[in-house]
Amino acid sequence: MDLKSFAEDGFDPKQWINKAWRSSANQEKEIFVANTVTRLQLYMKQLTNSLDETTTQIVTSIPRIMQDASSLQLEGTLLQQKLVSLEQKVQSVEQQTGHSIESLQKIDTLKSRLESAASALREADKWAALATSLEDILDSGVPTQGDKLAELCDQVAAMTASLEVLSDAPDYENKRLQLETLYNRLEAAVSPPLIEALTQMDAERTSRYVSLFSGMCRSVSVCRCWRRAAAARLAAAWRRKDQHSLPALNALLAGDAAGQVDWLTNVLKSDTPLAELVRLYTDLLLSLEPSPTKVVSANLKLCASPEEGILLLTDLRTDIDDFVNCIQSVIDAPRQNKEVLLPATLREFGRAAYAPLRELLHHYTEMQTQILVQHLQDAQLQQEDLVEQSRAILTTAERCESWLSTARSKASKIAGDAMYAVYVPAVQNFISTLSNLISSHSRNIETSFLSSVRSGESAGGVLSPSFPAALQLEAAVVIVLDTRASDTRAEPPASTDPLHDLPTLLLEAEARSKLASYRNEPVPSVAVLRRTKDQLRNLARAVLRHPIDVQLDKIPQLSVWNNNDALSTDLPDFALSPQEYITEIGQYLMTLPQHLEMHLSEKQAPLQFLSEVCTHTCEVYAEKILNIRNMDALGTKRCLNDIVYLSSVVEDLGSTITPALKNLEKSLRAATPSQNQE
Question: Exposure of 527 by Cβ count < 10 A (0-12 exposed, 13-18 middle, 19+ buried)?
């Protein structure tokens, strides 16, 4: 029987009885109840016996627990008393020994001071002896023999170390100044033999002097002497050259670079050998005599043509790049302790290396201008015939792209991404000269057209030589503008490497600040060409429309618009024919397509020209009709007949009359008598 349910808080007797009954396998109720009551009574008796036994055990064990707790409390009290007693003893010992420890500390401090004083006295005696000995050596002459020089090195190192020991002495500053004076005298005495050893590349002798300078903590002075000796040796080798040239100088310096780095690292024990080498070559390139700039300038003056001069500048850039790349390879060579050079140091060296090209770069503009302008001195550009002259200029414009591309390529080879500073002025000079030529010829075309207008020549319009001349000259201007626009879109790649940052190496600050404007802003002559293009466009259209304008100007003065007799007024419309002025215009318009195709290319849009002429004709025709005064009925019919004729011509040409002329036609029809009767 499960007794756990009796201990639950929500025990329900009814539920428990029903559950027990369901599990009784349908026994008789009286039997089930009797059995269940008997079993519950037995369980109650067992539980009561178990509770009595547990209570008896607890009652008998309580006195023993109380006794143990009392014993534990007594032991805790005794332990606390012992701890208090021990603390008192410790405090007593500290009080007794504190004075003794302070005495020991004072004694130890006094001992240290005595030892320092004794050491200072010994160092002072040693310092005085070393100083006296060094003064005697300086007075008698610095030895150059190996063993004596080694002794001097040891003595100098000892003096330096002795001065560090005497740093707390009252007269330390006086001793420091005295030692500095002695070292200055020693450096002055030792520098000449050191420079001699460096000049002769004597590693053994140089090592002794390097040790001496290291003892004086003056390794910087060793590098200074090395630069003087190396510069003098290289300058002498340059002066001895039979023929001075930049390749010879580059070979001299580049062949010496790796050896100098090894010498600086292994003999001079320099921590910055690459920086020392770059500084040496920077100073040397700026002090050579004759200077590389003078050598190249002299060679440039011997050039017989601008092409030779530009080739010399191109070779100069190649030679300098080869030298700089050689030094770059020395700098980038793998080493145990990789040295990092400052960008400013590399930039100073680059400026010195590129100095000849920087000084002569402006000559590129002059020479390239001469080459480009020579193309405009062709005899074909000096013709009297307007059309032939325009055709010659058009041919020249078509070749401009090739000429500018060649010039740009040469400029890029010479100046890289700094080319705009010298290339754009040359192009500006060329475009300006070409613009003057085009403007002059444009004025000649206009003058010829105006002369023919004043003289009243009948052969005009599309048959006039002024029209194809203006068209071809306009096409030439468009080609030049397109060529210039495409020329400014391409940009050479820029470099941020201090040794290849050509704008910084070749240009001054003012020129560098204008590089963006050189690339992006149009040159002044481009604006002139654009105005000339618009003028030529208007001139060609004026020439083309001139025969039409001449006929249209007659309209207001024609006598056919009024003073007609009554019999003529009754004539039917089909009896009227287009008048002479409008038939002249119609015949001229009908001949335009074939003539325009001869003179215009697809880019110049012949259909657009034709459409513009038709529109202009309709607009001006409408204006002239409105200027007619006292138009009678027959005049109105004739005018309407002329408008119908013009409309058919315009429609045959693939265009339509303008709204103004169409509205005018409607108004005139509304004013005719026949229209009113209807």
Answer: exposed
